[in-house]
Amino acid sequence: QIDTKRRNLIYTLRGVDHMKKVCDQMGSRLVMAPIVFNQHADLNDSLRNYASERKIDFIDLKELMLVRENFLPNDLHFSPEGHRNLAELLNNWLKQNPIKTEEETKPLDL
């Protein structure tokens, strides 16, 4: 019998595979930025490895998740500061990993 944690990971990875397939069919790039809480750090590592194996971009939010001030008191939702920090992290990632538009990827007529 498979434990709940393993079963949930299998379902998650099946979903990722489906999203990757759809993105590939659409000529899009899949980017993962999973929000995984500290007590499930092994899940974050599993997702990062899985993304790497399948050439899926991965934005690691682990450091963001370690800062208690990023969350509302007695809650698991991002605080205003947490939202700012998440937006900054994503913005920096996008600056370093620009997504090309269809126009930019068309071959040039020379």
Overall, the morphology is flat
Distance between the termini: 61 Å
Number of strands: 2
**Strand/helix succession:** HEHEHHH
Query: Roughly what percent helix?
Result: 55-70%
User: Numbering strands along the chain, what is their spatial order in the largest sheet?
Assistant: 1-2
Computed Rg = 17 Å
Q: How would you classify the helix and strand content by structural class?
A: mainly alpha
Detail the poorly predicted runs: none
Nearest-integer average pLDDT: 88
Q: What's the number of helices? A: 5
Main sheet record:
2 strands, parallel
Q: How large is the share of residues in beta strands? A: under 5%
Task: Looking at this protein, list some descriptive labels.
2 strands, two-stranded parallel sheet, 110 residues, mainly alpha, 55% helix
